[in-house]
């Protein structure tokens, strides 16, 4: 009887040990599975973090590029004027679709939207606007990390982006420094204190065949004068109902003959001299009337005759 009891005790001890071993093995397997799952989760999180980091880095690179490429424009009144004219011409014809889109995103009716919201509006409704122009636009109207779209579109009696256009001072004929007499040792290449001048005859393309047309004018300017400044001088001289004039080499309105606003006369080989007898050139110009004069046939007569 005692032998039987001892055998039974041994059997129970062995079974207990086996059961404990199984439990330990199960616990080890469970820990291993949990460890694998945890490691897998960490890897997924790391991949997400790396992906987000790449996106952030790409965005930062784009912002750095735009900051660098637009800095010369934002710091130069003349270049900024050109950019403002260009951006305004794009916005003007799309205001009726851009403004309602911004209103729909402005849930607080604050007159502002986030940078990303405004970027999506422009990207979807005005894709022809370049990234550089968009960056300039948002920089000019940025308020507390948001964009004031009402000011951009001329709400609240503002002039929109045109408010950032500054007048460019141009030397008048009586302010020009001229050389009356040149000595034999005079070296023109060393005369850095004196400007070279040219005389330009500007003819309105529409009325080129009519020599007595008052829109044909003559200007004497430095050959360093930009095409943009010349266009403003033409507007001032002729009192045209427009904000911008296009100037051409020939009496043909085309991209091949167009003189770009940011370049000077000298850049296009219209070089002057230090003498009083300046070289004479002929250039042509054209323009479109402003919308506010759409109902006036007199101011737009030349436009209708194109």
From TrEMBL:
Q: Which InterPro entries match?
A: EF-hand-dom_pair (IPR011992)
Q: What's the domain of life for this entry?
A: Eukaryota
What protein name is recorded for this chain?
Answer: EF-hand domain-containing protein
């Amino acid at each position: 009887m005692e032998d039987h009891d001892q055998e039974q005790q041994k059997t129970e001890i062995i079974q207990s040990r086996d059961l404990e071993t199984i439990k330990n093995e199960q616990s080890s397997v469970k820990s291993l599975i949990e460890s694998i799952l945890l490691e897998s989760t960490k890897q997924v999180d790391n991949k997400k973090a790396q992906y987000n980091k790449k996106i952030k880095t790409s965005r930062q690179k784009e912002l750095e590029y735009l900051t660098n490429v637009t800095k010369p424009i934002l710091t130069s009144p003349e270049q900024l004027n050109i950019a403002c004219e260009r951006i305004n011409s794009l916005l003007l014809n799309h205001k009726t679709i851009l403004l309602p889109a911004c209103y729909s995103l402005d849930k607080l009716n604050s007159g502002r939207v986030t940078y990303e919201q405004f970027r999506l509006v422009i990207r979807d409704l005005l894709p022809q606007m370049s990234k550089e122009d968009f960056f300039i636009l948002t920089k000019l109207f940025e308020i507390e990390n948001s964009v004031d779209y009402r000011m951009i579109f001329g709400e609240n009696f503002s002039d929109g982006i045109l408010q950032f256009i500054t007048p460019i001072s141009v030397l008048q004929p009586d302010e020009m420094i001229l050389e009356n007499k040149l000595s034999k040792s005079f070296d023109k290449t060393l005369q850095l204190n004196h400007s070279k001048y040219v005389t330009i005859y500007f003819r309105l393309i529409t009325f080129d065949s009519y020599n007595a047309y008052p829109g044909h004018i003559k200007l004497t300017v430095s050959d360093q004068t930009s095409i943009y400044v010349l266009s403003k001088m033409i507007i001032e001289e002729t009192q045209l109902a427009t904000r911008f004039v296009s100037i051409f080499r020939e009496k043909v309105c085309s991209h091949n003959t167009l003189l770009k606003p940011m370049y000077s006369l000298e850049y296009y080989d219209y070089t002057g001299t230090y003498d009083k007898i300046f070289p004479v050139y002929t250039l042509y110009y054209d323009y479109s009337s402003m919308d506010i004069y759409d109902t006036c046939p007199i101011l737009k007569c030349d436009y209708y005759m194109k």
